[in-house]
Amino acid sequence: MLNYLWSFLILTGLIVGSLNGHIVSMSDQILSSSKEAIELCILMFGIVGLWSGIMNIAVSLGLTDKLQKFLFPFLSFLFPNLKNQKAMEYISTNVVANILGLGWASTPSGLKAMEELQKDNPQKEIATNEMCSFLILNISSLQLIPINIIAYRSQYGAIQPSAIIIPGIIATCCSTLAGIIYIKWKDRKL
């Protein structure tokens, strides 16, 4: 459905631009935007490669295991009824990756965590409390280093691309705290 919507919008823009005599400026914008998109993709590939490498080094040194052990009491508080240890490992990996600002690296562990949580779900059509809690925690996404935003700000010429770190920490702490409060409030009501 979305493909049809985008196709319609693009075709409508091309037709209206052609009828208004703006076809030259429109084609110039298409070409410059395409060039900019490719440059941004190349930049992001480099950053993803760098941080994925750093994440692999952290895994091989056991740093992620230490972070996971550090997070275990917090996650046990959020998921008191979770007995599936494999799901807890995937959830903690997801949280660690999100804290480090590696959203793309957290996605596979998040999907695996949901698969593991689904295995313990007696009603397969309805999400469990643990699944909903994990989704809320994942969406709130506490981040200490917002790598993506720093990269985008750098690409677009920000004078201090890393100036977003402190506001990012504050915003994601607030969103995560709000998510935790909501999770515990809903758990109490059940």
Structural notes for this entry:
By secondary structure, this protein is mainly α. It has one domain (53-189). Helices cover 79% and strands 0% of the residues. The chain has eight helices and no strands. It has helices spanning 2-19, 23-61, 63-78, 85-99, 103-119, 129-140, 147-155, 165-189. Helix 2 (23-61) runs antiparallel to helix 7, helix 4 runs antiparallel to helix 5 (103-119) and helix 6 runs antiparallel to helix 8 (165-189). The protein is globular and about 65 Å long. The model has no long low-confidence stretch (mean pLDDT 84).
Task: List descriptors.
mainly alpha; 0% strand; 190 residues
What is this structure, in a nutshell?
Helix content is 79%, strand content 0%. The chain is mainly α and 190 residues long. The chain has one domain (53-189).
Please write out the topology.
Blueprint: H1 2-19, H2 23-61, H3 63-78, H4 85-99, H5 103-119, H6 129-140, H7 147-155, H8 165-189
Helix pairs in contact: 2-7, 3-4, 4-5, 5-6, 6-8
Biggest sheet architecture: none
Q: How many beta-strand runs?
A: 0
What count of helical segments does DSSP give? 8
Rg result: 21 Å
Number of domains: 1
Strand content: under 5%
| pLDDT averaged residue by residue | 84
Structural class: mainly alpha
Shape: globular
- Provide the low-confidence segments as ranges: none
Topology order in helix (H) and strand (E) letters: HHHHHHHH
N-to-C CA distance: 37 Å
Fraction of residues in helices?
over 70%
